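Re-run with default settings, no changes from the original entry. Doing this only to confirm the output is reproducible before filing.
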Amino acid sequence: MIDLDVLDKQCPKCHGLGRTENPTWVQFWTIQSSLVDSFRTLEEEQITLVERIAPDQPDEPMFFVCRNCHGRGKILTDKGKRLMEFVRFWINPNY
């Protein structure tokens, strides 16, 4: 019997999420939260002050598809790669 757990593992780049955060958005969120924390006013005033001072939202996506695992969250181990080569050899007559 084949042990399926040894054929793939969690992607080390995205930690199994299949996506990575866009650094532009991380910087935006950091600035936004620091601005909110820096004002000690009424909530309505705080919102308008932060809206005037805060930078515009980035036009880029919040997350990128992980290039290492192609959005799957897992990558093949060496045993998994060997099994895939074996299967491709026997399925494809022109291999």
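The CA atoms of residues 13 and 68 lie 7 Å apart. The longest helix spans residues 23-38.
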